[in-house]
Structures are given as structure tokens and as C-alpha cells.
Amino acid sequence: MSGLLVADSFLVANGKVRGLELHRERFVRSCAAAGVAAERFWDEQAGRLPGFGRWFPRFELQTSGELAVQLRPAPPIGGRVRVAVHEGPDPRTAPRVKGPDLELLGKLKESAPDRADEILLLDADGTVLEAAYSAVVWWDDETLCFPQSDRPLLASVTAQLLRRIAGSQGVEISERAVTPQDLQNTTEAWLVNALHGIRPIHAWGASAIDPLPNSVSTLWQSHLESLAARLP
């Protein structure tokens, strides 16, 4: 256990955040399930976040029942990503709640083979769920695809924002089961999270880097960044 019942992090860049209301909703809902009302705490603390610089605060409900915020400088973002696949069953104890498994997932990511930047977790049938610290999104020709929402997934705020963008752009969305092998043969695959936004998968395991010359990730990253709104 990491000492956390619930956690939520997001990028604050010069006083702006993407999807803050979705982060609030996820944190408050998970805290309520643990018997703690967190609405007032969230609103008060969000209003105190710096309006300058780059930060990656983490809101926490600790196992003691205490609510807290860690104000952390934002790590560097972006860059191509190499992924590996976790061999074995999904090790998480609470896949739909961010917090209890963060320490475990950090160790799993650090131990990823082939110097991978992230590691994919699979469902019992061998289909891709998500990565340790990222959701998985991919393109099948002109369709933007996501894992099936009835799978044991964390509700990714960035994935939800991409769905909104797709809707506004008239882009078809689909939820599908996909194996790692299938994912390697798609038009383009991304890892997405609140810190980095979109990172295209450029390499699998020890394979060579794929330059992805026709990547649409830069355009969609700009769409994501346009959703950043001022802190309350």
C-alpha cells in the first residue's frame, strides 16, 4: 500500500488546467466511496494553487482519513515513448480508483524491460487495458479508438477530453478490445495522461524507433492544450 486511498494529479501551467472539473469529479467521487466528503477541500485548495510557473499538484486522501495536497514542480513533458507489455495478470487491487496502486505501478514502470518508458497492463483475456501511468488511445484509419469502458479501467480525464474533441471535430469514436499485437498494427497509438497530454508510441519492447512520419499527435495535442482554463 502507498498510504493513499485516493489521489489525483494534473498539470498547472501558468494558472491554467485541462479538465479541472473532471479531475474534481473523479477525486470527490472516490473520496465519497471511502466515506469522506471532499468537495469543500478541493475547491479551497484549487483556489490556492499558483497562477504562475509549471506545477503538478497531487490531491490526496490518505489512509489516515486526512485530506492533503502536495504542490510539486511539474516534470519535463512530451517526447516519444517506448512501451513494454507486463507479463502476467493485472496486479492492481483497485483499478478504478487512483491512489491505492500508485506505488506498485511506479515500481512496475521502473522495472519495465527493454528500457521502456511505460508498461501496458492486460485484462485476463490478453487485451490491453491501459499503461501504468497512462491511458491507451489508438487510431484505426479515421476512427479514434478506446478500450471498452466496462473493463477494469481508471477513468482517464485526458481520454475523456479527447472524446470531447473528437465529437466537436466530427471524428468517429469506437470502444474496442485490442491485443498488444493488434495495437502495433494500428494506424497510430498513443499513451495519454494529465501531465504529458499525448505521447505517440514510437517503439515496442526492443524494436527500432518508428518515426511515425504522418502522426496527427501534434495537431491533437494543440486541441488538448486549447482546452486549458484558468484556475478558479
Give an overview in words:
The chain is α+β, with helices and mostly antiparallel strands and 232 residues long. Helices cover 25% and strands 28% of the residues. It is built from 6 helices and 15 strands. The chain has helices at residues 20-33, 39-46, 102-110, 157-169, 180-184, 217-225; strands spanning 4-9, 12-13, 16-17, 54-55, 58-62, 67-70, 81-85, 118-122, 128-131, 135-140, 143-146, 173-175, 188-193, 197-204, 229-230. A hairpin with a 3-residue loop joins strand 13 and strand 14.
Please give a handful of descriptors for the protein shown.
232 residues; alpha+beta; eight-stranded mixed sheet; globular
Write the layout of secondary structure elements.
Blueprint: E1 4-9, E2 12-13, E3 16-17, H1 20-33, H2 39-46, E4 54-55, E5 58-62, E6 67-70, E7 81-85, H3 102-110, E8 118-122, E9 128-131, E10 135-140, E11 143-146, H4 157-169, E12 173-175, H5 180-184, E13 188-193, E14 197-204, H6 217-225, E15 229-230
Parallel strand pairs: 7-8, 7-14, 11-12
Antiparallel strand pairs: 1-5, 2-4, 3-15, 5-6, 8-9, 10-11, 10-13, 13-14
